[in-house]
Amino acid sequence: MRAGEDQDMGALDGKVAVVTGSGRGIGRGIAMLFAKEGAKVVVNDPGVNVDGSGGDAGPAQEVVDAIKAAGGEAVANTDSVAEAAGGENMVKQAVDAYGRIDVLVNVAGILRDRMIFNMAKEEWDAVIAVHLKGHYNTIKPASVLMRQQRYGRIINFSSTSGIIGNTGQFNYGAAKSAIAGMTRVVARDLGRYGVTANAIAPGAATRMTQSVPESARQLRSTAGIQGAGASTNQPPQESQFAGLRDAEYVAPMVGYLASDDAWNINGYVFNVAGGTVSVAHQPTAMRTVFKPGLWTLGELDDAVQTVLMKDINNPAPPRDDVEVPGRDVPARSLD
Amino acid sequence: MAEKPFEGRAYVITGSGRGIGREVALLIGANGGSVVVNDPGVNLDGSGSDAGPAADTANEIVKGGGKAVANMDTVATEAGGENMIKQCMDEFGRLDGVIHVAGILRDRMIFNMAEQEWDDVVEVHLTGFFNVVKPASIIMRQNRYGRIVGFSSGSGMGGNAGQANYGAAKAGISGGVRCAARDLGRYGVTANAICPGAQTRMTQSVPDSARDLRARAGIAQAPRPASIVNQLREPKYVAPMTSYLLTDQAWNINGKVFYVSGGNVALAHDETPYRTIAKPGMWDMDELRALVPGQLMGGLANPAPPPADLDLPGRPVAAQA
């Protein structure tokens, strides 16, 4: 709170926000916090099952009712983000109901987990349509208005499954990594117009994470497969307070990014879980080998094994009983 | 390193009629590998078709004493991806690796980007990756051997104005590589990605005026590995590291992203937490307001800052002046 401001003012007073997938889970926590901080909220949620099937107006309406009961302002929307018309509709509904759109938060998502060698095209398409195309479908119409008004906040949802990697989620991981990449581009397209775009990689216990069976987690750990975690021999950076897994804990950082104070935070990905908030490392060059000419394969072998990849882990090494050509070659070093 | 490290092995290379894909195919062919040279010979925006480029590359490999066949399928469809994998099995009796280089461009600022421009780019690059990796992964898992190399981009990893579709698709390929690496690593299969830098038909389509505009507006460009020899921009420089990932020596390199340009080969930093603030409970907005600008974001620049003359809520008055 800065000097001269009314102590009763919320951080988002007068702002108009569209929050996709806000009928449940993380999105719901964001919609509730936004309303508490003074924003008018379009609560979007078609009320589908975790795999995208079905439909239910209940979740969106229930959140609207809860916001209104607490004295806030909100309207429900049950459009699908997977359709261009759906994205346009929810932005239009914000403008029709409240005259503008200041903040767009893209939380909506589904899961269709499957190992890549068993994944059906339909499982790929459905996840890409909701997560990735869904981000385009809302950002495109919102960006037109935000550019005109020289103000806006776009907050997308990525995932460690995409930016770090996870088994059984080729579709979801690709979509979520793509959302991080898209965020970095949109930040550069719109920054000069007073608009910011950032992404959250959340950690929380929700209906979606509950759908990942405990047996899958156990299998990964017994097979020595790293989930979203370390890439080097250093231990993964765990949340210091791992017990805090409620979905509401993701909301404050989203609220902060939506506020005027965050006017100059643009193009970044944040890990948010419990009380832990991190800014993710940009995927810049970590180590480089260089030669002023064309490498031969033999030269690369030396440079890669002794310098570039030294002490860098394989996140899912081959099982001991797999005959792996090249594995019997002793490890090399510069010494 | 064996004299011909790819002797007896067979590879499918998408988009290998021209540019980087062609150089990768030629290097593999010259080192004993059999190649399905896939390229429908489309224009840069995906329109048209031409059997010439794929046939040219295949002929050149055969002329040098190697084995190659041309393939005209599009990676943008499920059937196209399956066909080129099947052709590799039919022609060469095996499949050892898939390298997905094929791609198109439809650059547009996000606020002007048509749905078709989004769809076309995502379909070729990202769904194209699924379309070849899915059928290949079945065979590789059964073989307990295989190599997958996806082509990502500095635009997706670092961000580049006017490329929301391309940047998303390319970052998506990195994400897909990281997941495929974890699905398949235990079966002796690796999956990695290359972010290339080279002068090709594709980069020539980005007008110099766009680069000038970005520079003048202070918009950060996709980071390029520092090079003291920037003139090494021919696509052939990308081929050695791409091919090295296919060798037996690279059996334990998995789930990684590499920047390759000229004589530079760099390992990309994983997108792990860089700085962290933590509290044993729920943050409130005032606490975040106090800690985020300095503790979390101190020194981390806005890649496209708003111009000084823009009236911007939240910006301190001193900074506006």
Characterization of this structure:
The complex is a heterodimer of chains A (335) and B (321). Chain A is of the alpha/beta class. Chain A has 2 domains: 16-279, Rossmann fold (3-Layer(aba) Sandwich); 286-335, no CATH class. Chain A contains 10 helices and 9 strands. Chain A has an 8-stranded mixed β-sheet, sandwiched between helices. In chain A, helix 1 (25-36) packs across helix 9. The longest helix of chain A is centred in the middle third of the chain and has 29 residues, at 121-149. The model of chain A is unreliable at 1-5 and 229-240 (pLDDT under 50). Chain B has 321 residues and is of the alpha/beta class. Chain B folds into 2 domains: 10-267, Rossmann fold; 285-320, no CATH class. Chain B is built from 11 helices and 9 strands. Chain B has an 8-stranded mixed β-sheet, with helices on both faces. In chain B, helix 4 (115-143) links the parallel strand 4 (97-100) and strand 5. In chain B, helix 1 (19-30) runs parallel beside helix 2, helix 3 (78-92) packs parallel to helix 4 and helix 4 (115-143) runs parallel beside helix 6 (164-184). Residues 225-229 of chain B have low confidence and may be disordered. At the A-B interface, helix 4, helix 5, helix 6, helix 9 and strand 8 of A face helix 4, helix 5, helix 6, helix 9 and strand 8 of B.
Q: Could you give a short account of the major beta sheet of chain A? A: 8 strands, mixed
Radius of gyration of chain A: 22 Å
Count helical runs of chain A: 10
State the end-to-end CA separation of chain A: 57 Å
Strand order of the largest sheet of chain A: 3-2-1-4-5-6-7-8
CATH architecture of the largest domain in chain B: 3-Layer(aba) Sandwich
- What is the CATH fold-level name of the largest domain in chain B? Rossmann fold
**CATH topology description of the largest domain in chain A:** Rossmann fold
Please provide the count of β strands of chain A.
9
* Total number of distinct structural domains of chain A: 2
CA gyration radius of chain B, whole angstroms = 22 Å
Kindly provide the name of the CATH class of the largest domain in chain B.
Alpha Beta
Q: For the residues shown, what is the average pLDDT of chain B?
A: 92
Please identify the structural class of chain B as seen in this structure: alpha/beta
